[in-house]
Amino acid sequence: MTSHKSTFRFLIFLLVSALAAGIPPASATRRPASSSHDYGDALTKCIMFFEGQRSGRLPPNQRLTWRRDSALRDGSDIGMDLVGGYYDAGDNVKFHLPMAWTTTMIGWSVLEFGNKMGRSDLRHSLDALRWGTDYFLKATSVPGRVVAQVADPVLDHDCWERPEDMDTPRNSYVLNASHPGSEVAGEIAAALTVGALAFRRIRPSYTKLLLNRAIQVFEFGDKHRGSYAQSVGAGACPFYCSPNGYMDELAWAAAWLFMATGDRKYSYYVKSNLGTGLTAFNWDSKFAGVYVLLASLDYAYAANADNLVCAIMPESPSKTYTYTPGGLLYSKGASSNMQNPTALCFLLAAYTRVLRARNRSVRCGNVNIDPSRLDRFVKSQADYILGSNPLGMSYMVGYGPRYPRRIHHRGSVLPNIRQHPKKIGCSEGYWYFKNLRSNPNVLTGAVVGGPDMNDGFQDSQLVVSQSEPTTYINAPFVGVLAFVKGGFKV
User: Fold this and answer.
1) What are phi and psi for residue 236, nearest 5 degrees?
2) d(Cα 135, Cα 75) in Å, to the nearest integer?
3) Cβ neighbour number for residue 366 with a 10 Å cutoff
4) pLDDT digits (tens, 9 = 90+) for 449-458
5) How far apart are CA 454 and CA 471, in angstroms?
6) 29, 196, 201, 257: which is deepest, by most CB within 10 A?
7) Reported CATH class of domain 8-21+36-485
8) Residue 174: φ, ψ to 5°
């Protein structure tokens, strides 16, 4: 989580530490940008990142071996098994709204571009997907209840502990008929449906389980409408408040259910509840994803997808996004900007398939944008993230010769269990946090929040918006990297 993450005491600590450290701007050590990249290596690492975010009992094939089992009693406060899932970012909370969107996007990456991944990366992508869908089967296992989150975020963010050492409250926040949460229910339904589609040919019984549960959860979220921000309260806000509301999640879930079942009632639901003119796509905003997903089925969706293209492309006279001087898509006010280019580029990459199938381009005023132009744009954004930028800095940890070494992530900052078997308590971890040397554990594949609007970057745990990785940055980037690795042969 990348905004409002700490108490007043912690904010004062950060300010004093930053002033004492005298962190120099990254622009002081500029290097020439790289012009070519190993997209296969980047893809492998991008997928591996999710293993570093796993909660619960780790499997024997765990590749990031500095992690250990954690949070093995989650759900015990309400008599449920909630062991598993993903931590959202550099903290130890399981926020189900962004976790479900992460799961959906891993699954969509597999569905859209899995044939370009290679056998090993596809297998690990499916493992990452199932880590999410297995968990959401647990979180929805009691009829009429959906678990929205695990752990008290305020108390968690006031500690600097390894996941393996957590002793802060692991509260379970439950949604029901009197405490609705349609955003969470809708996104979980979408994640389960995408999982059903991804596993349809290889695990038919699992597919049936996922799809049946998705339908139940969607119906729960639609019947008992309301925002989880009101039901969960301080557990959701100011962390993942969902200011965009819940109708986009419900329409998003219905769109995926239509793709999975062919039942026209879901298509009608989407048409009856579809927002227009919306060009954001992230854990809180899904309408743009609906446009692209259904664009091949109905021109009305394609028209909105065209508007999305015109809002993004730098040469479009109607663009709404801005760009850094080095060319990175940038959204002012975003607490973690890199989620924007990864997610929006995924949509553009998926939309090129629709445009090619229809042998058409997008018209933005007097500017014509054809699929090959979208190909080049997506590649340019991927290249910037991987190091083709004014600083020559790869924003993916472990990729290339120069990448962030001081990311804002508890498990990466603190010595691992093998190095330091003794428990590190809540306040003890701050000693390591104040040490601005390179993190001892490399969170391979993590894409951090990235540079500021002037391409500047401070490699420091203290600059949270730039140095913290999140699952919802990486998830769509899986598909983007598979797309550029495949050489745009769609």
Assistant:
1) -100, -45
2) 12
3) 6
4) 999 999 999 9
5) 25
6) 196
7) mainly alpha
8) -110, 135
